[in-house]
Design a protein that fits this description.
Serine Threonine Protein Phosphatase 5, Tetratricopeptide repeat, 2 domains, 25 helices
Length: about 475
């Protein structure tokens, strides 16, 4: 399967991509991931969609702090059946199907090396070398000291004729493994192939330059390179901030530049600067719900950072608890105010309902969930929370009704369906319907043996 350019894709794919890209630019990451995932489902060869999908997934993982080695290890353990399934598909020659399943793993944990490797293997099995290269390029940006990934990427570059990129990979590999004769030979071979395939490139290389020296607008090339990185270094972000400030000077009324600048400030933890930037944008575009949402997110991130700093400094428990209480109070009051400002925003209704439920305002939460269930994207999760509310009110028959309704409307066994089936089993067990409860538990157990205490429940039943 060959790469598909955006202008060669169908109108539906182009429209979906444009919406997804706009959502990504505006920081609406979940919506961007949904739309860009739809793009590659419709057009697997659309590399541009895959590029921004991966960037959005990584950004979400960073926001949710799912980038530690422990979180990768945990996701690998819980996803072992899916990983094994994909390996089987690859061996059976079902590359396209394997690639689609591997996308689900990367959506769950985009910086997990095991998931990156199986995704690249699936892409190669689907005869999509550029997709494999794109996946490994993201890996290299995050694991720039991993000889296996860098060497594999160099080999793929060579196969597709990108000799300069291959040479740079093997040069890096020599730095990592200076005494490995096989690595040194591979580097020499890469130099030879590159010399045969290039002209001006060699002239530039002899002077110690890079490919950027061959581009007239060198500054523009550097900025584009920094923007294209899924995960940017601190130096990259500083350069991008300076560039965005220049853009604002040229177009002071362009709200998108203010959004971009606020995100960059937040990336460097300059939260006050981010807030000031958004306040300026809101003054120019009052009543913009996306700017409002972004402002809330940055203020919450500032609280989280302050809590982390207090914990790192080993501050006393009362100080940390006070800061946590301040954060929760802000989230509660901010959601309440935003729901009042945007009463037709069902996503906000859903989030407000969760916050009400967590603070034991059960009847008020039910009112919000009864409204938010009209949004198809949040309907299943809303029904789940409605059931929790009815359960807390001891109205178990109505709780099971919501959960059965949710199950009937879901096909894929995703995390939400696991939660729904597990909760339905718990309520049925509480009602004395043990066989029905076990039927729910078994559905979860068959796909995820590590989910909560599902293994203990099944084993106890069989004993």
């Amino acid at each position: 399967m060959t790469e598909v350019a955006l202008d060669k894709a169908s109108q539906k794919v182009r429209d979906t991509f444009n919406k997804g890209f706009t959502a990504f630019e505006r920081g609406n990451i979940d919506y961007a991931i949904d739309l860009l995932s739809s793009c590659i489902a419709l057009e697997p060869g659309l590399l541009q969609a895959r590029k921004f999908l991966r960037a959005a997934e990584i950004q979400k993982a960073k926001q949710e702090k799912k980038t530690s080695s422990f979180s990768h290890m945990l996701s690998s353990a819980t996803s072992f059946p899916a990983h094994a399934k994909i390996s089987g598909m690859i061996k059976a020659g079902k590359g396209i199907e394997a690639l689609a399943e591997a996308e689900k793993l990367l959506r769950k944990d985009p910086l997990n090396k095991k998931f990156i490797e199986i995704h690249a293997k699936a892409a190669l099995a689907a005869n999509m070398q550029e997709v494999a290269i794109q996946t490994l390029e993201v890996a290299r940006d995050n694991y720039d000291e991993d000889p296996f990934l860098i060497g594999w990427l160099g080999e793929l570059y060579q196969k597709v004729g990108r000799t300069r990129a291959a040479r740079e990979c093997f040069e890096k590999l020599c730095e990592l493994c200076p005494n490995d004769p096989m690595v040194i030979k591979a580097f020499k071979d890469a130099i030879a192939v590159d010399a045969m395939n290039t002209g001006k490139w060699e002239e530039v290389a002899e002077k110690g330059g890079t490919y950027q020296d061959m581009i007239k607008d060198k500054k523009g090339a550097e900025i584009l390179e920094k923007e294209s990185k899924a995960v940017k270094s601190e130096k990259d972000v500083v350069a991008l901030i300076a560039d965005t400030l220049e853009k604002i000077k040229g177009e002071p009324q362009n709200i998108n530049y203010y959004r971009a600048l606020a995100r960059l400030y937040a990336d460097t933890k300059a939260y006050d600067d981010a807030v000031a930037t958004l306040e300026k944008a809101i003054s120019m575009s009052p009543g913009d719900p996306e700017l409002d949402s972004m402002m809330s997110g940055i203020r919450i991130a500032k609280f989280d950072n302050e809590i982390e700093m207090l914990e790192a400094a080993e501050s006393d428990a009362d100080t940390i608890a006070a800061k946590r209480y301040e954060r929760e109070s802000f989230v509660f009051e901010n959601l309440q105010e935003r729901v009042q400002r945007y009463p037709n925003d069902l996503k906000l209704r859903f989030e407000w309902g969760i916050k009400l439920y967590e603070n034991d305002y059960v009847n008020e939460a039910i009112q919000q969930f009864q409204l938010s269930q009209r949004n198809p994207k949040y309907r299943s999760r809303t029904l789940y929370y409605l059931a929790l509310c009815f359960k807390q009110k001891k109205q178990l028959d109505m709780a099971t009704e919501q959960l059965r309704k949710a199950v009937s409307e879901m096909s894929a066994m995703d995390d939400t369906k696991k939660d729904v089936l597990y909760e339905l089993g718990c309520i049925l067990e509480e009602m004395g319907k043990k066989e029905d409860a076990m039927a729910c538990y078994k559905q979860v157990y068959q796909v995820d043996i590590g989910y909560k205490d599902i293994s203990q429940k099944i084993e106890k039943a069989y004993q």
